[in-house]
TrEMBL record:
Name of the molecule in the record: DUF4038 domain-containing protein
Residues covered by the Apiosidase-like catalytic domain: 29-351
Domain Putative collagen-binding residues, every copy: 354-445
Species annotation: Chitinophaga oryziterrae
């Protein structure tokens, strides 16, 4: 009898635990601008780049990382499945037999990934997975046929995991091995139609440049990259203006959601490769986040130099001039501040929000002087990175009168300003002195 009772309790616990892990599948919203859950709730993507998670962390370490990111409000973790064709996990298990993607090892490495995906689901985290990092395809190590076989393996293994998003590509150009990327995208789309798919491109490039009209591409992703204004002198030469990528994709037809999947990482040297260079700060990562989202992005991905590579004592010098271990870097100020953007965007009507620079009177400003505006029917948000005055063309939202307040991207606090007639031009003076990093969001709401 006792054994029977224990069996029943164990079964109940297992079922209850599974139900808690069953995250809702994600969908593109009806207006093709945002993501939502299968049951229609808004999903604001707040991502973290944990690229080397599967190859460097054991189960216990992964649990600590997931708990930290859950507590800080993240809901998506971007990870490489195969950083290289010789990939092994922290236990030394190989992913592939003879470095051939058509022949996964089928145990060890993959059992670990299965377990980590379930562990993420238990923390409310979606896993945005890159099947094969781009350089492995670009150098000719993966044939189109083998890519299809591997993609079919992934689709079959993870089709029933609700917390999967596919990131095709991996820091590469879409016109390098285009047929292979389409083979991966089409195979995943056809054999795993319940999970969203995009393409993670090389720095300062956009998935839309090659794949916007492909049926497998559910949303666009760009990598604004790690270069400063002075360093980005070729191609589009957008520099730090990541909002320009959003604006370009926002105008494309058919409409598809867009996100910055890799902006400048906190504590990364400008330009990546010179450890003596100035490093990106919490203020910089906030600026990238608010600029992109207010320009029309459906969410944002954050990154930290030490966390994205999970730098450990046994790794020696690491790469990109990393100075910290990941266990300390998870507490970087920029990571903790990202949740305030998520909370702000989910605090008001979601699906009617549009970018609207016409709200700004007297010019929007260039570079760090830029003012960025977005609004719904009953509210508006305007972001300043340095706390300069904001002149507003009133009347773009509903209501005879409106209330105004300051929202701090640094700590999520709100300071009431007052109530005003919703007409004419109003000038708002943010708290504090004008200086980079004294960023504020002007919130205007219908009374």
């Amino acid at each position: 009898m006792l054994n029977r009772i224990l069996t029943i309790l164990l079964l109940f616990f297992s079922i209850n635990t599974y139900s808690q892990h069953k995250l809702p599948e994600l969908r593109v919203s009806k207006n093709h601008r945002y993501l939502q859950t299968k049951d229609g709730k808004p999903f604001f993507w707040l991502g973290d780049t944990g690229w080397l998670l599967f190859t460097k962390l054991n189960s216990e370490q992964t649990g600590l990382y997931f708990s930290d990111r859950q507590q800080k409000g993240f809901n998506v973790i971007q990870v490489m499945i195969l950083p290289s064709l010789t990939a092994t996990n922290a236990c030394g298990d190989s992913a592939l037999i003879n470095k051939n993607v058509a022949h996964p090892a089928l145990s060890g490495y993959w059992d670990h990934i299965d377990s980590m995906i379930d562990k993420a689901a238990a923390k409310g985290l979606y896993m945005a997975l890159v099947p094969i990092w781009g350089n492995n395809v670009k150098d000719g190590s993966v044939s189109i046929s083998d890519a299809r076989t591997f993609s079919s393996f992934l689709a079959g293994r993870y089709a029933d995991k609700p917390n999967i998003i596919w990131l095709n590509g991996g820091d590469t150009k879409g016109n390098d091995s285009t047929n292979t990327w389409n083979a991966i995208g089409n195979t995943l789309h056809q054999q795993d139609p319940h999970h969203l798919i995009t393409f993670h491109p090389r720095g300062r490039l956009q998935s839309s440049e090659w794949f916007h009209n492909e049926s497998w591409l559910d949303f666009n992703m760009f990598q604004s990259g790690h270069q400063s204004y002075s360093q980005d002198t070729t191609g589009k030469a957008y520099g730090e203006d990541n909002w320009k990528y959003v604006a370009a994709d926002y105008q494309r037809t058919p409409a598809k959601p867009v996100i910055d999947g890799e902006p400048s990482y906190e504590a990364m040297p400008h330009g990546l490769h010179d450890p003596r260079a100035t490093r990106w700060t919490a203020g910089d990562v906030r600026r990238y986040a608010y600029w992109a989202v207010f320009a029309g992005a459906f969410g944002h991905t954050y990154g930290h130099n030490a966390v994205m590579q999970f730098h450990r004592p046994q790794d020696g010098a690491g790469v990109y001039g990393v100075k910290e271990y990941w266990t300390d870097a998870v507490n970087a100020p920029g990571a903790a501040q990202m949740v305030y953007l998520k909370k702000l965007m989910l605090s008001h009507a979601y699906y009617d929000r549009v970018p609207d620079q016409s709200m700004i009177a007297g010019g929007t400003g260039d570079k760090y002087q830029r003012l960025s505006a977005t609004r719904g029917k009953d509210y508006a948000f305007i972001y300043t990175y340095n706390g300069r005055n904001i002149s507003v063309n009133m009347g773009h939202t509903k209501g005879k009168n409106v209330k105004a307040s300051w929202y701090s991207p640094r700590d999520g606090s709100t300071k009431e300003i007052g109530t005003y007639p919703n007409k004419g031009v109003m000038v708002f003076d943010p708290p504090g002195d004008i200086q980079d990093g004294n960023d504020w969001v002007l919130v205007i709401e219908k009374i």
